[in-house]
Amino acid sequence: MMLVSTLKRCFVRAFLAGLSFFLLLCVSGCSFKTKQSSLDPKGPIALAQYDLFMVTVWVTLFIFVTVGGALLWVVWRFRQRPDDDDDHMPNQSHGNPLVEVGLIVASILLLVIIAVPTLRVLVYTFELPEDEGSKLGQWYQGPLTEEDAETILTVNVMGYQWWWAFEYPQLGITTANELVIPEGKVVKLNLRSADVIHSFWLPKIAGKVDLIPGRANWMWIKADEPGHYYGQCAEFCGSAHAYMLFRSDVLSHRDFEAWVEYQKKDAPEALEVSVAAGERLFAEKTCIQCHTIRGNQYAMGIKGPDLTHVASRKSLAAGIMDNRGVDGRIDRLKQRENLFEWIKNSQHIKPGNLMYHDDAGLKTVPLSDDDVHKIVAYLQTLN
Ligand code: HEC
Ligand SMILES: [Cu+2]
Question: Among 55, 64, 86, 101, which residue has the fewest nearby CB atoms (within 10 Å)?
Fold first, then answer.
């Protein structure tokens, strides 16, 4: 008897400890203010998706509470009692048309309550708004063709294993891993893949739409306020998928225009001796085979990110290395260390990434620390 009750106590304690640990784990994942929280919407698409999510949560919570409550009530109400007559079965019944039809009607009603807003959000998401104020010519002052001036800012998003290219066809800009957009303007994203299926997810602004090889998907987004937002590939796409992040800088109009004017420029000529040495090494060490640097006549590769303005990016390697200091601006020292680490040890930082890979696999590119320092000095002039 002693043993049984001790065992029982142990069991209850272990159960309670396990339960608290489980709840702690659940709660530790909960925060409305994390970098990638879809519960903290900062744009109309994310807001519509959030509202839809909440409708579903309330409906399913209602089902959970009523069904669970009914179950508990039945268990309690018809429990065994000491004065029950064990030889006598209680009255049995089978089927109750009223209850059954009622449940079917209630289920249909609940599904309709979810279906209507779902369809509304779907239509809203896939209908480019006729927003006069978002037409490129209405607010962007730079030179544009007549056709481009009449349309909305478009960005061609290309997913690669395991990074992102962002091309602005109307503005003649190509960048990587950082989607820079103006605040409060509708932006159309054309989503394409260069290899396998990826998924574009920028939780606070919008998500998710897949990038499917051979298929022309698109979505529109709008960010309400300037800021630095975090995104992530949301479709498993191979070994380094978990490291396929990206970032989005939402700028005021004036800052965005300045950014555009700057990005349109070619890379500056390498004038300083040490920088010119880096530029030469960039060609010698095969970097030019995969990277484009506009203004560098040898660097025209397209297998890796465009590096024309790599030093103007706040992060490196598809968002996983942060180049910013505490004030949110680019910290040149940190950027130099990150570039060095990346060029020297990219496989260590992002296992499986395709830098230095050709069809036959990983090539060895002999790079001394001194070589890398020179290349980094060159890349840091590419603001
Ligand atoms: C075989 C093709 C290839 C070669 C050769 C190559 N790279 Fe890359 N590089 C890539 C790919 C692919 C990425 C994207 C990796 C990722 O983030 O998954 C990349 C990323 C980078 C980045 C980060 C860009 C960003 O915005 O995140 C830098 C910087 C870079 N490479 C510099 C170099 C330098 C310097 C060399 C020569 C020493 C070089 N690369 C050689 C393919 C290549
Ligand atoms: Cu992915």
Answer: 86
pLDDT in tens, 313-323: 999 999 999 99
H/E stretch holding 260: helix 253-264
Q: List the domain range (segments joined by +) for residue 182.
A: 136-264
The tokens of 298 are what? Answer: 């040898």
78 is a domain residue: no
Residue 104 tokens read as 């079917």
Lowest mean pLDDT among 67-81, 176-190, 267-281: 267-281
Ligand 1 atom nearest to CA at 363: 1
Total domain count for the chain?
2
- Residues 347 and 374 both lie in one domain: yes
Mutate to test the pocket of ligand 1, among 243, 330, 355 (most ligand atoms within 8 A of CB): 355
Q: How confident is the model at residue 1 (pLDDT cuts 50, 70, 90)?
A: low
Decide: 126 and 219 in contact? Cβ < 8 Å.
Answer: yes
| 252, 142: one domain | yes
Q: Which long-range contacts (CB under 8 A, 24 or more apart) does 119-127 make?
A: 121/48, 121/49, 121/51, 121/52, 124/45, 124/48, 125/45, 125/48, 125/49, 125/219, 125/220, 126/219
Q: Would you say 219 and 206 are in contact if contact means Cβ atoms under 8 Å apart?
A: yes
Structural domain contains residue 257: yes
Ligand number nearest CA of 278 is: 1
What is the residue whose two structure tokens read 């009255």?
91
Say how many Å lie between the CA of residue 160 and the centre of ligand 2.
9
Instruction: Look up the pTM and report it.
Output: 0.87
Give nearest CA residue, ligand 1 atom 30. 343
Q: What is the pLDDT of residues 106-118, one digit of tens each?
A: 999 999 999 999 9
Mean pLDDT of the chain: 92
Q: Which atom in ligand 1 lies closest to the alpha carbon of residue 240?
A: 18
